[in-house]
Amino acid sequence: MKASGGREAAKRRAGESAADLVEDGMIVGLGTGSTAAHAIRALGRAVDAGLNVSGIPTSYQSRALAREVGIPLTTLDAARPDIAIDGADQVADGDLIKGGGAAHAREKVVDASADRFVVVADETKRAAALDRPVAVEALPDAVPVVEDRVAAAGGDPALRSAERKDGPVVTDNGNLVLDCEFGAIDDPAGLAASLAGVPGVVAHGLFVGMADEVHVGGDGVSVERY
Ligand code: 5RP
Predict the structure, then answer these.
(1) I want to staple 178 with a disulfide (CB 3.0 to 4.6 A). Which of 60, 136, 147, 186 is the partner?
(2) Is 107 annotated as catalytic?
(3) Long-range Cβ contacts of 156-164 (<8 Å, 24+ apart)
């Protein structure tokens, strides 16, 4: 069933529901993507209304948006997030596939360092099992070797191509991204551990056992706690 107002309205409800958790004085991890952007905009409005918070962005995109809406910024050198609010490409039992925006390396660092990690998603992201391709960020020189290791683990890697630029997507960290098709992932924790152990892999998009809450936007918002 379609959410009233469509998918964008569902994303907005999820983002605003998570932004409501932010209290005065908090440090907030600012996720990447269109759903997290709704949370960032809501926080910007709260800052305008007098809320005192600082944000730690997870990407060039979230940093630019936070600056545009007036959220003061800080870094992990100075503080750790009380809460991180971030989107996902797929959610199953609180485990996530992320990396649709190729920001998963910084997202993982910021989300994992937060006291509370809140995921925001619309209903289309919910699944019984994770089965989307897993984004693997790799050092450019390591790509052929990472491809071999992904194939040995049963995956089918494809170098992510840029749009409106010839050649591959280059991440905010100067690396390349392989989208790795594994079919339905029976053992997300096992696959996450094997990918993390491949030399040259900077970060993969499996976020296993990390989320504390998932705010799922539809006609309203349902909250799953883990
Ligand atoms: C970026 C991400 C995003 O959070 C994910 O792709 C979801 O984006 P959106 O809310 O636009 O669907 O992981 O790397």
Answers:
(1) 136
(2) yes
(3) 156/180, 156/181, 156/182, 157/181, 158/133, 160/102, 160/135
